[in-house]
Amino acid sequence: MQLKRTLQTGLAAAAGIAAALALATPAQAEEVIILINRGNIPTTAADFENQSCDNLPDLAADEDGWVFVLPASAGAEGNFISVTATYADETGTERTRTTGDDGGIVEGSGDNKAYIITPAGWTLLDADALVNDPDEDAFFNLTHACAGTPGEEPSSPGEEPSSPTEESSSPGEESSVPGEESTSPTGTTLPTTGTPLTIAIVSAAALAAAGAALFLVQRRRREAQDW
């Protein structure tokens, strides 16, 4: 009987100790994904109403900085664990950026901010965040943006130089027609074709025959004188 009472007392004490330990150990916070305030999207950094480069590292001129805040109204414990954002680049292609690879969690400043850096000109389409034990329907906000200047795209090869027809005049414009560059030779030229050529040939033959006859006459006269 005494042994039974001792066992009951021991079990009761163990149960009490276990209950005390359970109460003393805080429950592990649950990690939950919450969404960005739907009124903040879609937007480019340049179009967002709050412009500031606070809570950001030094940015290049062609980069945009995006700073997110976890408000107290979200009821979450601690800061962001991570933020993942979806953007559209200048061609409309969707791109995903995260605080782990493209940004970070801000230390200090209320310990409730995170940032992401993108090329300038991208449009924020959506974002979600992993946080500890938030209230139901909790959300976070885009608090400010630091807008850069998109880099200029190079023009296509066909647009850089002017076309050959624009750079120089056509051959017909650079020099005059050969017949206009020099005048025809002075003086009279012999005809080259047709009836005039025939007349010229006959005239030449007649002159040659007359010359031969005159030569024979003069030769005979000299022979007669020698006799």
UniProtKB/TrEMBL annotation:
The keyword Cell cycle does not apply. Residues 148-194 have a biased composition (Low complexity). Residues 1-29 form the signal peptide. InterPro entries: LPXTG_anchor. The chain crosses the membrane at residues 197-217. Residues 145-194 are annotated as: Disordered. Keywords: Cell wall, Membrane, Peptidoglycan-anchor, Secreted, Signal, Transmembrane, Transmembrane helix. It holds the Pfam family Gram_pos_anchor. The keyword Nucleus does not apply. Residues 184-223 form the Gram-positive cocci surface proteins LPxTG domain. This is LPXTG cell wall anchor domain-containing protein. It comes from Glycomyces artemisiae.
